[in-house]
Amino acid sequence: MVEFLGPLSGFGVTFRTMFAKPNTEFYPEEKTPTAPGFHGRHQLNRYPDGLEKCIGCELCAWACPADAIYVEGADNTEAERYSPGERYGRVYQINYLRCIGCGLCIEACPTRALTMTDDYEMVDDNRAGLIYEKDRLLAPLEPGMTEPPHPMQPGSTDKDYYLGTVRPDAEDPTPEDPTQEEPAPEDGSHA
Ligand code: SF4
Ligand code: SF4
């Protein structure tokens, strides 16, 4: 008797599903917005004048439990400067075959150089294609930014950059209104 009821209950599931509301996702034609704070592709951020925030300290690589990050720092010089201060990230790689999206790396970053975006479309058909380097991780240049290498803003120090008091490298800087608060940096990403 039990053997007879088993298949019947299975058909019952099929029958109920035939009348249930379809739950079809039409990806990639229709994309569902990600949840707030989604851990997607990483981004290496810039200061408002285009200099890179990464100082090549490797803290993100040491924090990564999956050993997915490889960093090689190098010295800035006055003739060739990529970031404020002494060092910059000359080589920066994230291996998305290893990354588990935990976000520990962005917590470890002392300059907020590294954040994560909503981009989850990281696919390829070979291993090398999923090792992202600076060309795919660096934030795009926004208006007022200049591609490094270039000097720091005249009269500013690396501390001014860290404190967020450096303005974009615009042609016609508008005089600062002391009654206005400094706007929050917009790096197009989130922690
Ligand atoms: S999100 Fe996690 S696994 Fe991925 S690179 Fe960062 S620390 Fe490593
Ligand atoms: S991303 Fe942040 S933690 Fe990683 S090397 Fe650059 S500055 Fe250091």
TrEMBL record:
Quaternary structure and partners: NDH-1 is composed of 14 different subunits. Subunits NuoA, H, J, K, L, M, N constitute the membrane sector of the complex.
Annotated stretches, region: Disordered: 141-191
Needed cofactors: [4Fe-4S] cluster
Main location: membrane
Stretches with biased composition (Acidic residues): 171-185
A GO molecular-function annotation: oxidoreductase activity
Protein name: NADH-quinone oxidoreductase subunit I
Residues of the 4Fe-4S ferredoxin-type domain: 44-74, 90-119
